[in-house]
Amino acid sequence: MLLIYAVMILISAVVLFPLLYTLLASFKSNMELMTDPGSIIPKNPTFENYVTALKSPDFNVPRLLWNSIYYTLINVLVITATSSMAGYVFARGNFPFKRTIFVCFSSLLFIKTGMLGIYATFKVLNVVNLTQSLWALIVYHIFSVPVVDIFLVKGYVQSLPIAMDEAAKIDGCSFFKTFIYIIAPLLKPIIATIAILSFKASWNEYLMPTIFTLTQPSQRTLMVGLMALKNSGEAATSWNLMLTGSVIALIPVLIAYSFGNKYFIKGLSAGAVKG
Amino acid sequence: MKFASKNGKSKSMSSAYKSESIACYLMILLPLIGFIVFNVYPILWTFRWSWFSYNGIDSQAIFVGWENFKTVFTTDTTYWKVWLTTLQYGILKVPIEMSLALFIAVLLNRQFKGAKMFQALFYLPNVVSVAIIGLIFSNMFSYWGVVNTYLVEWGIIQAEIDWFASKWTAMFMLVLGGVWNTFGVNVMYFLSALINVPEELYESAEIDGASKTRQFFSITIPMIAPVFQTILLLSLVGTLGVNDYILAFTGGGPSGQTLTVMSYLTRQFVPGFTDSTTPALGYGCAMSFMTTIILTTIALVYNKLSGKLKTVY
Prior knowledge:
The complex is a heterodimer of chains A (275) and B (313). Chain A is mostly helical and 275 residues long. Chain A has helices at residues 2-25, 30-35, 48-55, 61-92, 98-107, 118-127, 134-142, 147-158, 162-170, 175-186, 188-204, 207-212, 222-231, 239-273. With 313 residues, chain B is mostly helical. In chain B, a hairpin with an 8-residue loop joins strand 1 (52-53) and strand 2. At the A-B interface, helix 1, helix 4, helix 5, helix 6 and helix 8 of A face helix 1, helix 2, helix 3, helix 6 and helix 7 of B.
């Protein structure tokens, strides 16, 4: 038993070290970061980096943060709405080509189209007069197929007694009204799971926002801004900004995780058990 | 409800079935349009330009037939080199991650005090963005960084190592960061499988005098085998398809030696990541198309080998 605890604590230490190290480093002065990066505990803890980060003109944290926030919130809203409707439709609906459409959507799990398709995506967006911007990426996400989330809702709806739907139908509820008044209120736990998973995914997304904000640095999200700094010429002297920026970027997901970790876990195990 | 619709389908469309169908289509309209416009169309687009010498300007495109594919197979050693790197990364990361995750899950399954807390803790790295992982690990492994400092202080290495200067030290960091990032997910997956193994099996094995190791290989492994196959598939697909993590961490360095196939394609052809202003898109489409086929084939062959042809969920 003691041995188990020893192993657990050892692994926990390895898991936590990079995060704690970063947190502590964000309180070091840039001088200390450059001359003595090997130390862990800051010698003269200071908030200087946070002040610099909030005021820096090239690494405009308030702007980046705001972009990340609205980008993430809109995505979460859209994904929870589309996946809960689609999940319900595939669980309870009857319509032509239902099976075909479902199989098509599911195939997206395995077929990785690769990043070259981005050129075709831009072509489509150009047709509707959307140029590369964060808003164009939001539009792209509004039309995305959240396969795993659809699976989660579908499984959840199928576990609800069908008698409820039938009762609603007898009372004159249409298919859509049954969803709004009967099913949707019952979906809260699974919607919480999807909201928190999509929050994490959108907040952390890096590749697509980089491509879409290439010509518009003012629309960069926090992750894009951090990586732009890392790849810039001043990377070696900007560790204070990068590490502090990382801490700022980590706080929202860590808060979400500490309050909602049971939803994270639920989302994952719901996916695995069906295997 | 089911019956009603089946009858409706076989005879004539009842008006209830019709209105339900319309409601259904309206409710999945957004993903349905998105599927066609943002998934099917890009695939067709990639397939089409695979047969052209094309640099993004439609009027200058020249049909070249099999030429692009021939080049990939006969003269492009870089493409196959990045495939080798991809497999090396997979062969290093997947077994380490799987055995570590299974080991931890078996321990956690003993339901000791604090097990839930440790479980939550091990999943924590998975909520961290790959961009931030690349940043933090780059800092820790930098020349004067915390890792070198302690390794020297403890006498494990004589002098500081430049971790980013050789392929295998860079690969070591990538595997370490990759395992750190995703092992917790697999711990969860394994745990949800282990919880379903009936306790009585272990009890009767105990009575028959089977050792703990024997129990593990004769009860635990066979009982979780079906889920194990799925977990391994997910890990395999995720690891071989790794893309932004490599770009955020080593950037493919030193000199492209840690580029995996997906990150290589991104670095060569995607705006914002490529240095070229007019990348050879036609050729890129051919490579991209082949990559998709190879990755899908690996997944299918794996599925066939593990005797399980149904989908993951």
